[in-house]
Amino acid sequence: MENNLERLQKVLASCGVASRRKCEEIISSGRVKVNGEVVTELGTKVSKKDVIELDGKMLIREELVYYVLNKPTGYLTTLSDPKGRRTILDLLDQETKKIRIFPIGRLDYDTSGVLLLTNDGELSYRLTKSSKNVEKTYQARVDGIITQEAATSLIKGVMIDGIMTKRAKLEVVSLDRENKSSLIKLTISEGRNRQVRKMCEAVGFPVKKLKRVEFAGISIEGLGVGDYRPLKPHEIKKLYSL
Questions:
Q1: Which of 40, 50, 37, 36 is nearest to 6 (CA)?
Q2: In this model, does residue 36 exceed pLDDT 80?
Q3: Which of 67, 93, 141, 148 has a beta carbon 3.0–4.6 Å from 209's, enabling a disulfide?
Q4: Conformational region of residue 217, where left means phi above 0, alpha means psi within -120 to 50, and beta covers everything else
Q5: What pLDDT does 99 receive?
Q6: How many CA atoms lie within 13 A of 150 on its CB side?
Q7: pTM of the entire structure?
Q8: Considering its fold, how many domains does the chain have in total?
């Protein structure tokens, strides 16, 4: 890093202000001052000695934290809901709630499993931007005994919302012929809205139950439903290597 300088939007993101892209919008809108001067140039670089203000308040560099949550169904992947529905914030203890923490990506209300939480906007940006192709593995109980044709289509790509999905990985875990359902594991590298459900429906095998069992190499192994734990140093390092 040249002379220990970092881009302003990266510093804002790493302080948990927002994603890097959102921080760029914040800078452009004139809400940020560096050493008392409004800065709107996205290429601006700052050092640790520079005083940064956001909306008139000095930016405090927080200690970065990283957690993996085993999200239950019936919870929104958001920190608040105007309708009063349960959110992932309801699963956190009081000490963790004091940290300005947010989810990396999202899981649908009716989907359970791995959800990463952090106050590190830079890492969130790295893991969610489309060019990264971060792998996510889902375990899905689908209606019907899945055929080889359907399995091949899921692997090669199917058309959803007018766009072909990228190549995926598929494992048929078990077939329940008595109840006419299949348990599959599908690994995708995209993050499109309700993608796994739409993919399975496109090949004629709608999802009955869905759980994300791995995200970017982080699993929920050993975590009870609704429980969470800090990421280990080697796990954080792995996420930054992607």
A1: 50
A2: yes
A3: 141
A4: left
A5: 82
A6: 19
A7: 0.81
A8: 3
- Pair 124, 139 in one domain: no
Question: Could you identify the residue written with the tokens 């970017």?
Answer: 216
Question: What distance in Å separates the CA atoms of residue 58 and residue 239, rounded to the nearest whole number?
Answer: 29
Task: Find the catalytic residue in 55, 81, 108, 143.
Answer: 108
Residue with tokens 């969130």: 124
Residue 174 lies in domain:
135-215
- Write the Ramachandran bin of 23: left for phi over 0, alpha for psi from -120 to 50, otherwise beta: alpha
Q: What is the pLDDT of residues 154-164, one digit of tens each?
A: 999 999 999 99
Place of tokens 């009955």: 208
Helix (H) or strand (E) holding 202: helix 195-202
Q: Is 108 a catalytic residue?
A: yes
Same structural domain, 146 and 198: yes
